[in-house]
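Incident log, structure service

09:12 report received: a user says their structure output differs between two submissions of the same chain.
09:20 pulled the input from the user's history:
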Amino acid sequence: MSEPESANPGTADPPDPAGTVTAATPTPVAESKAGDRSPWNWLLFVPIVVPLVTAFFNQDSPRLFGFPVFYWLQLAFVLLGVASTTLVYQMTKRRG
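09:34 re-ran on a clean worker, output below:
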């Protein structure tokens, strides 16, 4: 399969008279990776560390709808993770 030939073989194509830029502009990829170090990201450790503290659910009461604290607290930890992730996302997203 052959590539299409340019209008002027052996030379670069002349610039567009309309002045439009056809080449892709470089994106600042390295800059965006370095900018991800927000202190808000530390909040993502909360839903990881809090369920590890067994003192929170090492008991039978209080019960919620008849469920012992261990079961309904697991659901509360899921909600804590969702809330923390949403908050970190909202505070660190780029506005442009």
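09:41 both user submissions now match this output. Likely a transient worker issue. Closing.
09:42 reviewer note: The CA atoms of residues 39 and 80 lie 18 Å apart. The chain is about 35% helix and 0% strand.
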